[in-house]
Specification:
Helix content is 38%, strand content 14%. It is of the alpha/beta class. It is globular and about 55 Å long.
Length: 256
């Protein structure tokens, strides 16, 4: 847990690199709004574009969004028989990770980490996971191993994860807010969340995007992302964070 007395705010946009529209939406939410951090999914073609475009946004912290659910892995599917189905796809949701072999989870997580380095030329600011799959102890083991190797923070996604990270001496956010999602991704609710923050480091998870055809055709959470973008860039939200004296940060700057 952090001993920081001020109210430090990380607003992290998940799914950078998934589609071009997600990329543009996240960068817009950073340059015009509250987003301070993003996590990159490296297995999609748009990840290369996202990494290239990130050079124009040096203050946006970029971590690795380890993806063990949804889509395809970075490694050849034949190397991950316990992780993929007959078509080479990862399980849709974390409950499909039950049969996963720890060594295969570690291999894929490391391959995604290496791909991040290849795309960006630098270490991620932190690690988290698609669909919070690191709430699964096997996935958490893999992220912990990578974090310890490279001295990286990991998202505190549950009390169990927080306890594990504390035991390992890994930096993490004190508070994790996942309420800003779906029907609760409203301006009034965001301002309420900001007003209720406690001293310490809080991460608010979000999913802004400019909805494109690829996103619309591949995700059940699509048009909602456009609304999130509008809320995150709304002048009232930006003004509220400033007037509340919140210190914007990402996982690379939160402990400075």
């Amino acid at each position: 847990m952090s001993s920081t007395p001020s109210k430090v705010l990380i607003v992290n946009a998940d799914d950078l690199g998934r589609t071009a529209g997600i990329n543009s939406g996240i960068f817009e939410a950073h340059s015009k709004g509250l987003v301070t951090s993003a996590t990159l999914m490296v297995a999609y073609p748009a990840a290369e574009e996202a990494a290239a475009q990130s050079a124009a946004h040096p203050d946006l912290g970029i971590g690795l969004h380890v993806q063990l659910t949804g889509g395809r892995p970075v490694l050849p599917p034949e190397r991950l028989p316990s992780l993929v189905d007959d078509s080479g796809r990862l399980p849709s949701f974390p409950d499909g990770l039950g049969p996963a072999e720890p060594r295969e989870v570690m291999a894929e997580a490391r391959a995604q980490f290496d791909r991040f380095l290849e795309l960006t030329g630098r270490l991620p600011t932190h690690l988290d996971s698609h669909h919070h799959s690191h709430r699964n102890p096997i996935v958490c083991d893999a992220l912990v191993a990578l974090a310890l190797e490279h001295n990286l923070p990991i998202r505190n996604a549950s009390p169990e994860v927080e306890e594990r990270l504390s035991r390992e001496g890994i930096n993490t956010n004190d508070f994790f807010v996942e309420r800003f999602f779906g029907e609760d991704a409203q301006l009034e609710i965001l301002i309420e969340i900001l007003g209720g923050l406690q001293p310490g480091i809080t991460e608010i998870m979000c999913h802004p995007a400019n909805v494109d055809d690829e996103l619309r055709n591949s995700s059940s959470y699509a048009v909602e992302r456009q609304h999130e973008l509008e809320v995150l860039t709304h002048p009232d939200a930006v003004r509220a964070a400033q007037e509340l004296g919140l210190r914007p940060a990402h996982f690379g700057t939160a402990w400075r």
